[in-house]
Amino acid sequence: MKRWMALFLAALLLCTAAAFADETPSDTLVVVFSHAGENYNVGVVEEGNTMKLAWIIAEQTGADLFEIEPAVPYPESYEDCLDIATAELRSDARPEFLGEVENWARYETVFVSYPIWWGHLPQILYTFLEAYDWTGKTLVPFNTHEGSRQAGTWREIEEAAPGATVLQGLAVVGSTAQNDPETTSASVSAWLADLGLGE
Ligand SMILES: Cc1cc2nc3c(=O)[nH]c(=O)nc-3n(C[C@H](O)[C@H](O)[C@H](O)COP(=O)(O)O)c2cc1C
Fold first, then answer.
1. By residue range, what is the domain housing residue 166?
2. Is residue 188, in this structure, part of any structural domain at all?
3. Which of 96, 99, 182, 186 has the fewest Cβ atoms surrounding its Cβ within 10 A?
């Protein structure tokens, strides 16, 4: 075979291998529940604070992303949302969500994210956590808040996701996640490095 042809074939092989490598499915998933619309300290936003944080984490870990979308959307108004959240908390509700995670078995590490609602997980997180088998999964919580930090929710998650190994989470102030991507991104990088995660 001529030398140029051998080189050409080698280059072709390398490109094909690289293309396949890019298509390797991720074994990491970011699950996010977040409320767009009016919220505390940020006004009316198109994308919720936790969603902004979730995109940064998905980007830094190469993860897929699944959004917990409520079957009945929460009201855009902050006050109305507070009222519904109060009623759901009192009744220990399990609000339904749309869709499902495809290829659940493929994911080894699942980041689970949410805003703090009344010092707790939003009830829809229980619906999600109880819908899946967590045996053998590594679960990494992260959340946004406006003062309560993680508010004991890591323990709530541990109880609702038996079988999972729950790692140290990250709590970010919601208005920082919404308005300061550089600071948020730096906090995420440091946290992921501590956990030995990140790409
Ligand atoms: C119903 C409701 C209850 C909340 N309760 C708390 C709380 O107990 N502690 C706190 O720090 N922030 C609380 N917040 C503020 C949110 O946790 C914060 O704004 C968060 O960043 C919102 O994230 P999101 O935009 O992704 O929904 C509450 C917000 C709502 C809507």
1. 26-195
2. yes
3. 182
Asked, for residue 5, whether it belongs to a domain, the answer is no
Q: How confident is the model over 37-92, as pLDDT tens digits?
A: 999 999 999 999 999 999 999 999 999 999 999 999 999 999 999 999 999 999 99
Pocket test for ligand 1, best of 32, 40, 124, 156 (most atoms within 8 A of CB): 40
181: CA distance to ligand 1 center in Å? Answer: 19
> What predicted TM-score, i.e. pTM, was given to this entire model?
0.91
**Which residue has the least CA distance to atom 18 on ligand 1?**
145
Q: What residues contact residue 28 under an 8 Å CB cut-off, 6+ apart?
A: 61, 62, 63, 64, 107, 108, 109, 110, 111, 197
Q: What is residue 96's predicted lDDT score, i.e. its pLDDT?
A: 98
Ligand 1 site residues, Cβ closer than 6 angstroms = 34-35, 39-40, 48-51, 81-82, 85, 115-119, 144-148, 174
- We report the CATH number of the domain holding residue 115 as 3.40.50.360
Is position 65 within any domain? yes
